[in-house]
Each structure stands twice: as structure tokens, then as C-alpha cells.
Specification:
16 helices, about 60% helix
Length: about 350
């Protein structure tokens, strides 16, 4: 019988009761590397088998849970401070990890995140940025080229960090780049906002799930892929738990022109984490298969690196047209080579 791995326990956390003590070391390492130790602790707690876990492992899980809770409290406090700093007529929409925490989504339990992602309407971006600078958030010092890259091609301004608290804030005007092949206009998202506090909003459930799927595909970040797919699985399980509800997600993704990205992401998440045998079958389509191969553990020896490269290349292709992408990548490669030459000198 193969040893249980992290994905096995996230799929069926009740199985944690039967894991041999000698197998826990690898699982804890896998979970830590994937930023999933806290979510694993939450899943085991929900399954009611926490007392069956060896004491030494319970200490790791308890620390991850405590860390997650403290970071959540700090992040929500910071969001309240940001809300006070920005003019009250500007809606403050929190995204991604902070949004999950703000509305207490199922995947927020145990999850950690380092940045606070804020979305404001594009027409109000300059005012919001000015207010944050006045409140002590310093913009990152980047080159003139990178300033143009962020402000003309990307969906956010350069990252900002508070001068005293060192909180990092990513101020967005959209959920993906305006030059993207699949750009989602911010105005299309504003009608469905849900308030979590006075003047603080999150995307509606369908847009929150859609954004989670779109983000993991367009980022192409293999290190966070397993965590992001688990996020997606829990969100779909919570908000779209049957085929009729799931059809609503497909309609919304189709309306926004991202169904061809959202559906493969959901299929990959289901293949990894669903208890339904039919869903666990290898999904169709290269994108869903690549997501599974890049995230699966134990890693497929040859398939995983190829899948990671394909996902990274695809993410670049989505975000920028070739006329911008090729010169941008050549510039990055040249600067990387020069930096390596200087380091070796």
C-alpha cells in the first residue's frame, strides 16, 4: 500500500487517524512547503480526528493554526486602517486571501497570506494611491521601465509598504491586466460586490471563485499551485456544491470570456481533491492535465517539469500580446544575464 501524502489527507482528512507516525514527517514537510499546513490542520479539525494525530504533529498543526489566526487579525486590522485612509466615496474591495478571511470562506481556515490585495475602480486609482501614500504607504522604488510596465500594462501599481508597520499592499484597478487576452473589466464586477464591513467589500461568490481560478492559471506559479487549487476546490464545494449551481459559475465565466480557463482549473482541482471517483479521473484538455501534473504529489518525474514550463509560458501568453511580451522577456533575460555577470565578477 502506498504511503499517504498531503493530497490524500486534504481529500479525505478522516484518514489522518490511520496515518503511521513514521509517515507524518513527510506530510508535514509537504504541507509546509506548499503553504498548506494550516489548511490541513483545519481539515483534520473539521473531520473530528485531531485527537488521533500524534502529539508532536498536533503541535505543528496547532502552531500553524495560531499563526494563521494572528495574521488574519492583523490583516483585517490593516484593511480597516486602509479604509479610514481612503476617501469614503471610494469602494475598497479586498481580493484573494484577505477576501477569504474577510467573508470567512471555508478555505480561510488555517490559510496564510503575506500581502493585502485591494481593488478600486480604475478612475479612482490615482486618488486612492495618493491617500495611501499620505497614510504612510511608500511605493516601491522601481525603474522608469517598470513604472510603465505596472501602470500601462498590468492591473496594479507597484507594491506599497507601510513605513512603520511594513505591511505590504498591492493596489489593483482590475483583476487581470488590461492588455490581457482575457481582460475582465472592473465595472463588470462592481454590481455584485458583497459588504463585509462599512465601506469594505469582497467580490460576490461567483466572481470570487472565478477570480481564484483565473488567478492560478494566469500566474503560472508552480510553488503556489497546489494551495491555489485547494482554495478553488473548497470555494466550489462551499458555493457551488451541485451541478445546477456549478452551471451558474460556467455562465458567469462565459459572460466574462474566461470559461476556457476557469473550467479546466475547476476540473484539475476536482481531480486532485474531490472524493467523487468520476471527478478524480484524469481530466481532458492540456491545461487541466498540466495543472494536475504540476501540482500532484508524488511529482511525476518527467511530466511535472514539462507541465510547469507549459503553464508558465501559457500564463505569459495570456497576460501580454506578443508585441509587448517578446521585448519584455528579452529585456528581463538581458538584465538577468548582466546581473549574473556582475555577481561573478
Amino acid at each position: 500500500m502506498p504511503k499517504p501524502c498531503l493530497i490524500d489527507l486534504l481529500r479525505e482528512p478522516a484518514k489522518a487517524a490511520g496515518v503511521a507516525e513514521s509517515d507524518w514527517n513527510d506530510i508535514v514537510i509537504q504541507a509546509t512547503n506548499a503553504q498548506l499546513l494550516g489548511p490541513l490542520a483545519a481539515a483534520i479539525e473539521r473531520a473530528g480526528v485531531a485527537d488521533c494525530v500524534p502529539p508532536a504533529v498536533r503541535q505543528h498543526l496547532a502552531l500553524a493554526t495560531l499563526t494563521s489566526g494572528k495574521r488574519r487579525e492583523a490583516a483585517l486590522w490593516e484593511v480597516a486602517a486602509i479604509r479610514r485612509a481612503i476617501d469614503p466615496d471610494i469602494p475598497v474591495v479586498v481580493l484573494k486571501g484577505c477576501a477569504y478571511a474577510a467573508c470567512e470562506d471555508l478555505n480561510a481556515a488555517g490559510r496564510v497570506f503575506s500581502d493585502i490585495d485591494i481593488l478600486v475602480p480604475p478612475a479612482l486609482l490615482e486618488r486612492a494611491e495618493g491617500k495611501l501614500i499620505g497614510a504612510g504607504f511608500n511605493p516601491s522604488q522601481v525603474s522608469a521601465y517598470d513604472q510603465r510596465y505596472y501602470r500601462e500594462w498590468m492591473h496594479e501599481v507597484p507594491p506599497m509598504e507601510h513605513v512603520r508597520r511594513h505591511t505590504s499592499v498591492d493596489l489593483h484597478h482590475a483583476i487581470n491586466p488590461p492588455v490581457s487576452r482575457v481582460h475582465v473589466p472592473t465595472a463588470r464586477l462592481m454590481a455584485g460586490l458583497v459588504a463585509t464591513a462599512p465601506g469594505v467589500f469582497v467580490l460576490g461568490p461567483v466572481d470570487r471563485v472565478m477570480h481564484c481560478a483565473l488567478h492560478l492559471v494566469q500566474e503560472g506559479d508552480a510553488q503556489k499551485l497546489l494551495r491555489d487549487l485547494y482554495d478553488l476546490h473548497l470555494l466550489v464545494q462551499q458555493h457551488f456544491g451541485n451541478e445546477a449551481l456549478l452551471a451558474g459559475l460556467w455562465r458567469r465565466a462565459d459572460e466574462l470570456g474566461v470559461l476556457h480557463l476557469v473550467r479546466p482549473a475547476q476540473q484539475a482541482a476536482a481531480a486532485l481533491f474531490s472524493v467523487d471517483v468520476q471527478s478524480q479521473k484524469s481530466p481532458r484538455g492540456w491545461l487541466a492535465r498540466s495543472l494536475v501534473a504540476a501540482a500532484r504529489w508524488p511529482r511525476p518525474v518527467f511530466a511535472a517539469p514539462l507541465a510547469e514550463f507549459a503553464l508558465l509560458a501559457h500564463s505569459h501568453w495570456i497576460k501580454m500580446p506578443l508585441g509587448l511580451l517578446v521585448p519584455h522577456l528579452l529585456r528581463k533575460a538581458w538584465l538577468g544575464l548582466r546581473g549574473k555577470e556582475k555577481a561573478e565578477a
